[in-house]
């Protein structure tokens, strides 16, 4: 997708018996100024919500705590089956950004 200044969402379903849910989002960030701290220009955040969905774009049951970088991730062990929503929220967004997100579910042993 492409992020401007508005949050974006998409929904998915987790089947019964899922043992792990993994959601990873990454985005292309323009180069920061030399010596900038942090060395990142924009900052997108990742939230995962389950039903009933909270209408706020920056609220979810699970939140990525990846820190300030261009990769956000959420891991959920033994997620309940049902409908889920990915929320990608521009915490700081000065540019139009390309982003990608993968949702993967595991059935069975994850060790």
In words, what does this structure look like?
- Helix content is 0%, strand content 52%.
- The protein has no helices and 8 strands.
- The strands form 2 sheets. Strands 1-8-3-6 form a 4-stranded antiparallel β-sheet, with no helix packed on it. A 4-stranded antiparallel β-sheet has the order 2-7-4-5, with no helix packed on it.
- The radius of gyration is 15 Å and the shape is elongated.
- The mean pLDDT is 91.
Comma- or semicolon-separated keywords:
single chain; 111 residues; mainly beta; 4-stranded antiparallel beta sheet
Put the structure in a nutshell:
With 111 residues, this protein is mostly beta strands. Helices cover 0% and strands 52% of the residues.
The biggest beta sheet is recorded as: 4 strands, antiparallel
Succession of helices and strands? EEEEEEEE
| Biggest sheet strand line-up | 1-8-3-6
First-to-last CA distance: 32 Å
Radius of gyration: 15 Å
Q: Strand percentage, roughly?
A: over 45%
Supply the number of helical segments. Answer: 0
| Overall geometric form | elongated
Count of beta strands: 8
Measured as a percent range, the helix fraction is under 10%
Q: Which segments are poorly predicted (pLDDT under 50) over 5 or more consecutive residues? A: none
Mean pLDDT over the residues: 91
- Main structural class: mainly beta
Set out the fold topology.
Blueprint: E1 2-3, E2 8-14, E3 18-27, E4 43-50, E5 62-63, E6 71-77, E7 82-92, E8 97-107
Antiparallel strand pairs: 1-8, 2-7, 3-6, 3-8, 4-5, 4-7
């Amino acid at each position: 997708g492409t992020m401007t200044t508005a949050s974006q969402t998409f929904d998915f379903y987790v089947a019964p018996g899922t043992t792990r849910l993994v959601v990873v989002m990454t985005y292309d960030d323009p180069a920061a100024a030399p010596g900038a701290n942090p060395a990142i220009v924009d900052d997108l955040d990742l939230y995962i919500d389950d039903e009933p969905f909270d209408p706020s774009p920056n609220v979810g049951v699970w939140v990525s705590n990846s820190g300030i970088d261009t990769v956000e991730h959420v891991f959920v062990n033994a997620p309940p089956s049902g409908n889920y929503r990915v929320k990608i929220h521009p915490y700081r967004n000065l540019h139009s950004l390309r982003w990608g997100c993968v949702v993967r579910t595991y059935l069975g042993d994850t060790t």
